[in-house]
């Protein structure tokens, strides 16, 4: 291995360590308490080294959020491919989204700015809207199959996304005082009613 390749590999390793340290700190202390200084301390480098790789904390958060959206996209595709009918696909996609949110709470909070400022400023890649696009496609296919007006697919799918994301957000941010009924059963009933309404 040449000197250039060795240096490049070392740079990639330090960059990966910065991102991993930031994510680990967020899991233990929360995203709000994350700082460049804490990340530098965690990887045992000085803060200027971290700034050599990322302009600021927001750049680190953006990069981690992209990982989250990519991982979510993969889970949604896996769920969709297990079924043939648009109704079953829709149920599976929503379930996969719900499961991802609660198995990856730190990612989800960062991705959607729950309890913090959302990072990215419109820079998100295609995966950002994959959930919305997939439920739109299923909704459109169900509406068309039922002989209803396909012009309603956009409005209806946006309403479902809002309901699902809203339930997840409430459960994540207000666990102490939300009704006990706000759970997976409520989600299942909402999706079932949604499909019947199309």
Automatic annotation (TrEMBL):
The record's listing under InterPro entries reads: Homeodomain-like_sf, HTH-type_Tx_Regulator, HTH_TetR, MT1864/Rv1816-like_C, Tet_transcr_reg_TetR-rel_C_sf
Q: Where is each HTH tetR-type domain found?
A: 12-72
The alphabetical list of record keywords is: DNA-binding, Transcription, Transcription regulation
Specify the signal sequence span: none
Reading the lineage from the top rank, the first entry is: Bacteria
What positions does the DNA-binding region cover?
35-54
Q: Which terms does the record give in the GO molecular function aspect?
A: DNA binding
Asked whether the UniProt record includes DNA-binding among its keywords, one would answer yes
- For this entry, the protein name equals TetR/AcrR family transcriptional regulator
């Amino acid at each position: 291995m040449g000197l250039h390749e060795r240096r490049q590999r070392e740079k990639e390793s330090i960059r990966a360590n910065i991102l991993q340290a930031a994510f680990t700190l967020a899991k233990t202390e929360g995203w709000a308490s994350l700082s460049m200084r804490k990340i530098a301390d965690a990887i045992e480098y000085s803060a200027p080294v971290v700034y050599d790789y990322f302009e600021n904390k927001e750049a680190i958060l953006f990069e981690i959020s992209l990982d989250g959206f990519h991982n979510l996209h993969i889970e949604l595709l896996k769920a969709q491919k297990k079924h043939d009918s648009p109704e079953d696909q829709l149920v599976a996609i929503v379930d996969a989204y719900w499961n991802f949110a609660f198995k990856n709470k730190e990612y989800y909070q960062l991705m959607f700015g729950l309890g913090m400022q959302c990072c990215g400023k419109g820079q998100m890649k295609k995966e950002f809207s994959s959930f919305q696009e997939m439920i739109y496609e299923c909704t459109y296919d169900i509406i068309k199959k039922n002989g209803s007006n396909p012009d309603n697919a956009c409005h209806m799918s946006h309403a479902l996304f809002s309901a699902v994301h809203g339930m997840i957000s409430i459960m994540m941010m207000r666990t102490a005082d939300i009704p006990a009924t706000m759970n997976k059963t409520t989600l299942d009933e909402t999706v079932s009613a949604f499909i019947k309404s199309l």
